[in-house]
Amino acid sequence: DDADVSGIFLVADSTGGDVTTIFVSVQAVSGAPDAGIGAFEPVASKALPEGFPSELPHYPDAIVIETVFQKGSDANTFVASYIAQANASKVLDRYRSELEDAGWTVGDGPAPEDGSDGQALTFENESGDVTGNVIAAAFAEDENYTRIDVQVRDAR
């Protein structure tokens, strides 16, 4: 009933089990030009989805703000979005170092598709069954934070 808010619900049943995936996206599409936007206040960190690969590093003091899990027939897909008070280069340098030290293959990732000034890297474990990328870019709600999106495909 509010023209300033739009959204979508996607619901999908799995073909291989009793799992339903529900995705909800809500967007404020307009608002009063005089409405004051308060200072950003970080919220408590959310829990990572069950089964998120524990061997992946977690950036120190990062706050989990969003998570996604999708069960597939050949692999599970996870996305964890964090915010941290560090610049994007520092974030990726730490991920690169920790993953390489653990024996993972790390490469430069493609630039984010949203046109932001973000940076990315790709990773793969020794057996090749866990792959993904890390994207670090300015956090839109507060320039003192960097948004870190870790996307993982786990075929184990």
For this structure, the quaternary state is single chain
Give the N-to-C terminal Cα separation.
45 Å
The SSE order reads EEEEHEEEE
Topology, number of strands: 8
Supply Rg. Answer: 17 Å
Structural class: mainly beta
DSSP helix fraction: under 10%
Low-confidence stretches: none
Supply the number of helical segments: 1
Beta-strand content estimate: 35-45%
Record the strand order, biggest sheet. 3-4-8-7-6-5
Average pLDDT, all residues: 86
Explain how this protein is built:
The protein is mainly beta and 156 residues long. A hairpin with a 6-residue loop joins strand 1 and strand 2. The longest helix is centred in the middle third of the chain and has 14 residues. Helix content is 9%, strand content 41%. The model has no long low-confidence stretch (mean pLDDT 86).
Question: TL;DR?
Answer:
By secondary structure, this protein is mostly beta strands. The protein has one helix at residues 88-101; strands at 5-13, 20-28, 63-71, 76-84, 105-108, 119-124, 130-138, 146-154.
Labels describing this entry:
156 residues; globular; 1 helix; six-stranded antiparallel sheet; two-stranded antiparallel sheet; mainly beta
Topology of this protein?
Layout lengths: L4 E9 L6 E9 L34 E9 L4 E9 L3 H14 L3 E4 L10 E6 L5 E9 L7 E9 L2
Antiparallel strand pairs: 1-2, 3-4, 4-8, 5-6, 6-7, 7-8
